[in-house]
Please model this.
Amino acid sequence: MACIWEQEQKLRIWLDIEIAACEAWARLGKIPRGSLSAIKKRAGFDVARVEEIEKTTKHDVAAFVAAVAEKVGRDGRFIHMGLTSSDVLDTAFAIQLRSAADIIIEDIKILLVALRRLALRYKKTPMIGRTHGIHAEPITFGLKVLSWHQEMSRALERMVQAKKAVSFGKLSGVVGTYGNLPPAIEAYVCRKLGLKPDPISTQIVQRDRHAQYFLTLALLASSIERIAQEIRHLQRTEVLEAEEPFSRGQKGSSAMPHKRNPILSENICGLARLVRSYAIASMENIPLWHERDISHSSAERVIAPDATILVDFMLNRLKDIIKDLQVYPNRMQENIARTGGLIFSERVMLTLVEKGLSRNEAYKIVQKAAMNTWMAIREQTDTRRGKELFLDFLLKDRKVRTLIGREKLEECFSIKHSLSHVDMIFKRALKRNEG
Model:
């Protein structure tokens, strides 16, 4: 990824654009064939020489054109004919962003394979679902991972669209009117470089296209962070249902030998903040003065390489975490039992409603038993009683005993019932991707 943004690579793309423009002019008879041959044979650049000239010109494209013309000789006068700097800069920028998108798209596809494999492996592994950080109802670890998979699938779709949005070049002159070069030049160059001509440009390609690209990267970074943050939570000592890889010889702390910290996931969360900040800069690049100013340029020189390199790094780091993630089903089972059956409260309430109670009355009965269970859990030291604790408090209520009874009540505490539609969810989600 970094190679895309290196100075030599950028200048090489500039040279490709300049030579392609010369070819287009030659097709129109404006550059002699012999001169075109000389340009194609001799055109080149030396990065140090470009930088040396730029010290005088204070203009990177002008310095580049001068350096190339030196190499070509007399026929160098045809280079950059009719073009303005942004014709080269924006067309090259499209090529760079497109190349970066190709790498990121491939990264996402690789991550999707790892996520799918992990989701299917733990498709039927029960764990507690949490809302507000508090035990809610049972899910499976496979469902959790499947939600990550689906989010990354949407990220892939957005990245493909973002690539399309920026794959536009422009060679339309100083204010976009083709005043000193015909549209045929633009059409030829863009076709040769695999771009589309921007239907209407000013001196630049409008920056809403690029903002879409960087917003897509910001969304992607946020989705990556969501997964990493969840792994961090699952690795907390009190939870410990999953753990990122911890290699032989690794140290979690300089002071505490026992530490196994989720540093890989934490790194990802920190980097996501940077990528999101670049999206803000890209949106602020949209409103420029009249047909253009140069305020966007300095920002793009930072945010483009940084954002794409960071997202590439984050995707690869997350892929490695997912591939070697340590999952602890036994611990998941222990945590399910930690609240003494409270996680089945909705099922009990609905059963009471089915037996004729109003929803409000059923809610009050179940909530009273639940609050008593919470109090008992706080006071006891042994949390291994499973579903019995909540069940016992429910059976103290006369209406529960009369309307439901112990046998029917115990049926409400079935994880199988809670997870009866897991297969359907997997089938529906994965079918969407295959379709």
